[in-house]
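This section describes the prediction task in plain terms. A model, or a person checking by hand, is given the sequence of a single protein chain and must write out its three-dimensional structure as a string of tokens. No templates, partner chains or ligands are provided. The sample shown here is typical of the held-out split.
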Amino acid sequence: MLLPALARSKLAARRIVCANHLKQLNLAAEMYVGDSEGYYPSSNNPNLRWPQALRANYENLNLLVCPDDTSISPSASDTNADVAPRSFLINGWNDYFDALPQPVAAEIMPETVVFHPSETIVFGEKEEGEGDYLMDIRNPTNLDVVLDQSRHGGRGRASGANYAFADGSARFLKFGQCLGPVNLWAVTETGRAGP
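The expected answer:
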């Protein structure tokens, strides 16, 4: 009788640890934005991806790993964060960049274009084993294969994932809620209408 309750408690604890990791990464991103004249890290710089760009604002590489991500084990090594194991991806802000005159020289997005900070995702969970660094909402593969919307809570109606938002919060959303009825990965009104 106690074993199912204990198992549920362990699942809830790991989900909370994951949300805390996202909140800490989100805080690192907020400090980066504050130090970078209000801009998020570049989404297209292969030489300096978001984990290393934010590294000055966090020390422990274990923050990059969700405890429910069974594909990797956290390590405390002090390496380049861009090559460290990670369970999360950052918003690629694709709808914003697509609305700009093309070509866009440097894909850096100002925080001032986020009009719904409590409903705009900065970080989300990626599928185990996927190497992507950012969420590209234009790519159906990212929506179906890369984005993990059901890591916590098992499979089915109660499953979901943790997300960090532009207002500094981190919370659990049930499967599908990050994409509809409003696309929480988007910042433009057109993009928010859905993929």
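For orientation: The CA atoms of residues 93 and 186 lie 6 Å apart.
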